[in-house]
Design a protein that fits this description.
The chain is globular and about 30 Å long. By secondary structure, it is of the alpha/beta class. The chain is 42% helix and 19% strand. α2 packs parallel to α3. The protein is built from five helices and five strands. It has a single domain, classed as Response regulator (Rossmann fold, 3-Layer(aba) Sandwich), CATH 3.40.50.
């Protein structure tokens, strides 16, 4: 995980195929000092994670090309020490997401304060 000074926040990778959700997350995070990269497919997200230096990944479960669970597993196979926050609109997948190693799970839609609080809590660990 890249080091950051207190005034400089880290870069977060968002893996989300719904453009409106990705754009909303980008606005929320950038307005709060984070840098953001977006991948719109699971495959692009895996490639971005392997190329970049992200402090955290936010991934949707139901991506257009693969399950978010498979994205997490693929990235973890490469020994990247990066926490994941999972977002989903399907509340029946929350327990599975936690079991897959997600640092946190949010059910869509969620208020901006909830994602920001979860990010701060996750990064403080």
């Amino acid at each position: 995980m890249p080091e950051r000074s207190p005034e400089q926040k880290c870069e977060i990778l968002i893996i989300e195929d719904e453009r409106s959700v990705a754009d909303a997350l980008t606005i929320i995070l950038e307005d709060n000092g984070y840098r953001v990269s977006i991948a719109t497919t699971g495959r692009d997200g895996i490639e971005a994670a392997l190329r970049g230096e992200f402090c955290l990944t936010i991934t949707d479960i139901g991506l257009s090309d693969m399950w978010g669970f498979d994205v997490i597993k693929a990235i973890c196979r490469h020994k990247l020490q990066m926490p994941f926050i999972v977002i989903t609109s399907n509340d029946s997948l929350i327990a599975e997401a936690r079991g897959c190693g997600a640092a946190g799970v949010l059910l869509k839609p969620f208020p901006p304060s909830e994602i920001l609080q979860l990010i701060e809590t996750t990064l403080a660990r």
